[in-house]
């Protein structure tokens, strides 16, 4: 879903091309939204990324194996903010299979072995990792803020020289600054959560 002017820069090509509704996006494309633009990406595994205005993002790695329902992804939020709605592909498939089969428990034994999915979000300062979550990441100058609206995420500084990993559960947030471990998780104020929820539903 595209609102306003959104451009993509592909490695090895000169200049930027304008993204239109339905255009395919490749791994390594740098996507940028103008000051009054927004973009929603829907990935093959069902993940949804809502990118706010004045933001830039790159999907650095992406692999989805349909037979095993396993996803591996690395996304770089270069500037601005984005909301990531991530469901476990195996769990989504299992629930659909169960519903279509009348919720018979023996159906699960016919599903592919669960291997687990990983989704990593990187900013200049932070690395956020999860399998299933609803999370908003804001990349500002000098800091990154992570808000978990649902599920849980693991957050650490991108630098290997900084020790400390924070588990950020639902309705909690952390801030990551250069050369510092994540702050202690703090409850998201109700007013802030309403703002984030409105942003998440903008599409």
Q: How is the secondary structure organized here?
A:
Layout lengths: L1 E2 L2 E4 L7 E2 L11 E4 L4 E5 L5 E4 L4 E10 L4 E17 L2 H12 L17 E5 L3 E5 L2 E8 L2 E15 L7 E5 L2 E5 L9 E2 L2 H11 L3
Parallel strand pairs: 8-9
Antiparallel strand pairs: 1-5, 2-3, 2-4, 4-7, 5-6, 6-8, 7-8, 8-11, 9-10, 10-12, 11-12, 12-13, 12-14, 14-15
* Helix share bin: 10-25%
Low-confidence stretches: none
Could you say which overall geometry the principal axes of the C-alpha atoms support? globular
| Alpha plus pi helix count | 2
Strand order of the largest sheet: 8-9-10-12-11
Radius of gyration of CA atoms, rounded to a whole number: 18 Å
- Characterize the largest beta sheet: strand count, sense, and whether it forms a barrel: 5 strands, mixed, barrel
Q: Span between N and C termini?
A: 8 Å
In N-to-C order, the SSE pattern is: EEEEEEEEHEEEEEEEH
Q: Total strand count, please?
A: 15
The residue-averaged pLDDT reads: 88
Strand content: over 45%
Structural class label:
mainly beta
Description:
There is one protein chain. This protein is mostly beta strands. The protein is built from 2 helices and 15 strands. It is globular, with a radius of gyration of 18 Å. It starts with a strand and ends with a helix. The model has no long low-confidence stretch (mean pLDDT 88).
């Amino acid at each position: 879903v595209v609102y306003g002017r959104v451009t993509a820069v592909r490695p090895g090509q000169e200049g930027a091309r304008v993204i239109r509704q339905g255009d395919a996006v490749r791994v390594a494309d740098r996507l940028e939204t103008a000051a009054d633009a927004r973009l929603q990406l829907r990935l093959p595994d069902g993940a949804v990324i809502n990118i706010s205005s004045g933001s830039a993002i790159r999907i650095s790695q992406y692999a989805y194996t349909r037979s095993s329902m396993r996803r591996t992804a690395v996304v770089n939020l270069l500037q601005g903010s984005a909301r990531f709605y991530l469901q476990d592909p195996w769990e989504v498939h299992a629930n659909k299979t169960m519903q279509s089969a009348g919720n018979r428990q023996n159906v699960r034994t016919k599903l592919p072995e669960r291997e687990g999915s990983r989704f990593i979000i990187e900013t200049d300062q932070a690395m956020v990792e999860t399998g299933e979550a609803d999370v908003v990441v804001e990349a500002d100058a000098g800091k990154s803020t992570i808000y978990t609206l649902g599920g849980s995420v693991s957050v650490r500084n991108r630098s290997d020289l900084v020790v400390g990993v924070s588990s950020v559960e639902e309705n909690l947030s952390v801030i990551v600054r250069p050369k510092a471990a994540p702050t202690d998780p703090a409850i998201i104020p109700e007013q802030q959560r309403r703002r984030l929820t409105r942003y998440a539903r903008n599409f």
